[in-house]
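Input record, target 12 of the design panel.
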């Protein structure tokens, strides 16, 4: 059944104001340029922010050697954790202060980049992380930062937001300021070859969720749609490829670029209800972000598809990589998109039901309230209440779809 449109149909006249803060340096072995690029930012003392997995993969030692080879003094903070907390940021700030740094280099997944951004806020503007929850709360200049993603997922390298969880309340805080964006992002596909299959799966489906959500939010505009559609075209056919053959550098490059384009789309049009619903699952059950988003996405697309403007937007998105064709009919295209997303989840071995992840149905009312309070919920194309979120969680307990593979 088609509901009355909750919003006007999308117009290309939707205003946007896009100023890229981040220079994108893409290429195989582009990590080699790190020293010279840091020098261009007038760096002399650098804090390399990373995590133990990246140290074990040997990437941190390589980055350190390249930076030192350019004559820079380098200190390392390698205790970044998944879903970084305010405590992690405080430890990073202490390391930055002790080393008297003038530049940050974040090497790793979204967590390392978020930790470095969070550290930059507190180091340069004082106070504590909670003071920067929201947009544009940093009055003073911030240090230049270089972001080097080793996963193809969050697109944090192209965003001005740090996602930091309050260590006490577990509330995820989106702290954004144009000054917090990386000045340079180095996109080197070879760095993503070391991702374990689980990380490839979770971060890859997160990147795909980013393009699916940004393609329909109420802030979508001609620029964000260009990034979302190109990101979708790059990632959707490539995720099964990297899953089948982790050494497929062409597909790895497409995933990395698609995730970065998705990051630019988020910067312009925020996210939607799948991300709002995912945060309580991560906070309460420790479910990885990409997994939580992936499990919620089909139900959210079906829910939003009842809005005519969102239905049209999904059909256009699905037509970009030829999952469907708009001329087949919008409803047909929507079902093809949902079926393709479900098949992708199956192909990469992602659990599809919340029941498989230890989530208790009795927690649905509490989680639904939390989801409705998330910032991203306000940008979803259909108004989404706590009651609606309860329905979305219920749907994610009983996922539809068969065992198709892509
Ligand atoms: Zn995400």
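The sequence produced for target 12 reads:
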């Amino acid at each position: 059944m088609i509901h009355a449109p909750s919003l006007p149909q999308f117009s290309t006249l939707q205003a946007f104001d896009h100023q890229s803060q981040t220079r994108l340096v893409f290429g195989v072995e582009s990590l080699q340029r790190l020293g010279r690029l840091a020098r261009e930012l007038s760096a002399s003392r650098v804090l390399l922010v990373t995590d133990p997995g990246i140290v074990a993969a040997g990437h941190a030692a390589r980055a350190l050697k390249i930076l030192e080879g350019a004559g820079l003094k380098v200190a390392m903070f390698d205790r970044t954790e998944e879903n970084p907390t305010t405590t992690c940021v405080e430890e990073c700030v202490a390391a930055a202060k002790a080393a008297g740094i003038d530049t940050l280099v974040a090497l790793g997944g979204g967590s390392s980049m978020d930790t470095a951004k969070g550290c930059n806020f507190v180091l340069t503007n004082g106070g504590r992380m909670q003071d920067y929850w929201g947009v544009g709360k940093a009055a003073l200049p911030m240090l230049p930062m270089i972001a080097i993603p080793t996963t193809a997922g969050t697109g944090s390298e192209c965003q001005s937001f740090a996602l930091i969880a309050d260590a006490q309340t577990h509330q995820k805080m989106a702290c954004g300021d144009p000054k917090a964006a990386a000045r340079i992002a180095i996109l080197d596909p070879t760095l993503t070859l070391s991702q374990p299959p689980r990380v490839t799966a979770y971060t890859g489906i997160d990147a795909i969720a980013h393009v699916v959500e940004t393609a329909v939010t109420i802030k979508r505009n001609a620029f964000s749609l260009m990034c979302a559609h190109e990101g979708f075209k790059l990632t959707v056919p490539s995720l099964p490829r990297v899953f089948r053959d982790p050494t497929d550098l062409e597909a790895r490059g497409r995933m990395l670029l698609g995730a970065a384009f998705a990051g630019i789309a988020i910067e312009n049009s925020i996210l939607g209800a799948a991300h709002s619903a995912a945060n309580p699952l991560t906070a309460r059950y420790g479910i990885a972000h990409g997994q939580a988003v992936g499990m919620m996405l089909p139900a959210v697309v079906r829910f939003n598809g009842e809005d005519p403007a969102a239905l049209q937007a999904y059909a256009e998105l699905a037509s970009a990589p030829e999952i469907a064709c708009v001329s087949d009919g919008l409803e047909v295209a929507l079902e093809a998109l949902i079926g393709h997303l479900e098949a992708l989840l199956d192909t990469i071995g992602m659990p599809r039901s919340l029941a498989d992840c230890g989530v208790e149905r009795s927690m649905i009312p509490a989680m639904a309230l939390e989801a409705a309070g998330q910032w991203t919920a306000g940008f979803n194309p259909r108004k989404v209440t706590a009651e609606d979120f309860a329905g979305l969680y219920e749907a994610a307990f009983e996922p539809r779809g068969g065992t198709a593979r892509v």
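The pocket of zinc ion is lined by residues 206, 209-210, 275, 289, 293 (CB under 6 Å).
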